[in-house]
Write a structure and sequence with these properties.
five-stranded antiparallel sheet; mainly beta
Length: 74
């Protein structure tokens, strides 16, 4: 049995929308990704969960709004 409950995160509307293609810095490199989830953290800041990868995707959590920028459209 598991007695721990997952914290409920408040969904908000941020600067970027769900499913939008973006770029962000991750471990010193610029990575492309998709917005997977938008919510407020404990400090009241808007943070994002971002999905990266193709065949075997990974979700990077707690990326701040100021670390994200829109990828250029061609």
């Amino acid at each position: 049995m598991c007695f721990f409950r997952k914290k409920v995160r408040v969904q908000v509307n941020g600067k970027y929308q769900l499913g939008e293609t973006i770029r962000f810095r991750y471990r010193g490199e610029v990575c492309p990704g998709y917005i997977y989830r938008v919510y407020l953290n404990d400090n009241g800041q808007v943070v994002y969960d971002i999905q990266i990868g193709g065949e075997c995707p990974t979700i990077i959590v707690n990326i701040k709004e100021e670390e994200i920028f829109i990828s250029s459209k061609k």
